[in-house]
Amino acid sequence: MGRFLQIAGLIIGLAGIVLQFCITIPASMEAGRSLLGSIVFFLSFFTVLTNIGAVLVYTALLSASGYAWLPAFAGPSVRAGVAVSITLVCIVYAVVLARLWQPQGLFLVCDILLHYVAPILFVLWWLVAGADGKRQWRDIPRWMIYPVAYLAYVLVRAPIAGEVPYPFLSVANNGAVSVAISALAVTGLFVLLCIVAVFVDNGVLRMRSSSPK
């Protein structure tokens, strides 16, 4: 089951990322961005970056050769961190972002793949085969580096590029206080998910210890 979920997740993740790239870049260039600017715009979405991370985890673990050239993404702490991050992707999109626009056609397909299908597959895979039962509270600060660095990047880039990937992070439109509240709320949710991940991971260890030999 673990290998099936891994391969299915890899295929779905790659398909979603490639399709999103193929439809986003032309649309972005039509909106006035250069090719380079469009690529930077594409890579400025937490959803895209996190799904790329999930694909790299799958790839790193798929074979011995994959592990050799992607060891950082094969580690159990990174696997758990990506599981937390991709869960955040799903929840924030479903609760906040999905109501802000109504994608059609291939954009809708990408939305479903990257915000729902890929996250669910990765979390299921992590529960079945990715968790090692050894995560501890000290892993949480390491997992926090990614979203905090992403938030800093978005806020620094915003006045330079004149845009943000997510509307609730726009200081120009919402004000600094509103953005700060939104950022704190999402960060708080991420911390909560981290705590749940540690408990779940340790539950995996207990279940393995109590299972018949």
- The shape is globular
Number of helices: 10
Q: Low-confidence spans: pLDDT under 50, at least 5 residues? A: none
Strand content range: under 5%
The residue fraction in helices comes out at over 70%
User: How does the helix and strand content classify structurally?
Assistant: mainly alpha
Largest sheet features: none
- What is the domain tally? 1
Query: Gap between N and C termini, in Å?
Result: 20 Å
Describe this structure in words.
With 213 residues, this protein is mainly alpha-helical. The protein has one domain. It is built from ten helices and no strands. The chain is globular and about 50 Å long.
Q: What are the main properties of this structure?
A:
82% helix, mainly alpha, 213 residues
What is this structure, in a nutshell?
By secondary structure, the chain is mainly alpha-helical. It has helices at 2-30, 35-42, 46-62, 64-69, 71-74, 76-97, 105-130, 139-161, 171-174, 176-210. The protein has one domain (2-210).
Task: Detail the topology: elements first, then pairings.
Elements: H1 2-30, H2 35-42, H3 46-62, H4 64-69, H5 71-74, H6 76-97, H7 105-130, H8 139-161, H9 171-174, H10 176-210
Helix pairs in contact: 1-2, 1-3, 1-7, 3-6, 3-7, 6-7, 6-8, 6-10, 8-10
